[in-house]
């Protein structure tokens, strides 16, 4: 549902079936934002974001979770890159604001628009 909504909002979206597939895609293509669920096969979304930041420092990421609060250790640490958490059920207005803010906060004047990757 989130992928369809982001496409409707004009974003190009790449999907991955699990965290490892998302990492493989991120090694092959540059993206504006990683959107991931906390609960995924193989690794959690928090683990995916940690690995993404190790490989691609500064990569913006959005974690969607059913858990109370943001389960990302160091989510307030700007050194790892812009990070946000949204709680399920996701309000589409909140999603729109978070995606726009994360992409804008990480953009540099010489950036070219890339794609959004969403891992399930």
How does this structure look, described?
Helices cover 36% and strands 22% of the residues. The chain has 120 residues and is α/β, with parallel strands linked by helices. The protein has a single domain (2-119), classed as Rossmann fold (3-Layer(aba) Sandwich). It has a five-stranded parallel β-sheet with strand order 1-5-2-3-4, with helices on both faces. Strand 2, helix 3 (45-55) and strand 3 form a beta-alpha-beta unit. The longest helix is centred in the last third of the chain and has 15 residues, at 92-106. The relative contact order is 0.27. The model has no long low-confidence stretch (mean pLDDT 85).
Shape: globular
Radius of gyration: 13 Å
Strands of the largest sheet, in order across it? 1-5-2-3-4
H-E string: HEHEHEEHE
Cα-to-Cα separation, first versus last residue: 11 Å
Question: What is the oligomer described by this structure?
Answer: single chain
The average pLDDT score comes to: 85
């Amino acid at each position: 549902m989130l992928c369809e909504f982001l496409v409707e909002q004009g974003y190009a979206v790449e999907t991955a079936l699990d965290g490892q597939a998302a990492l493989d895609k991120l090694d092959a293509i540059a993206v504006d934002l990683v959107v991931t669920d906390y609960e995924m096969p193989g690794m959690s979304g928090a683990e995916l974001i940690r690995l993404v930041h190790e490989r691609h420092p500064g990569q913006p990421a959005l974690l969607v979770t059913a858990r109370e609060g943001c389960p990302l250790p160091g989510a307030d640490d700007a050194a790892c890159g812009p990070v946000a958490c949204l709680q399920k059920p996701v309000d589409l207005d909140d999603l729109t604001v978070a995606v726009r803010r994360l992409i804008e906060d990480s953009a540099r004047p010489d950036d070219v628009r890339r794609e959004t990757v969403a891992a399930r």
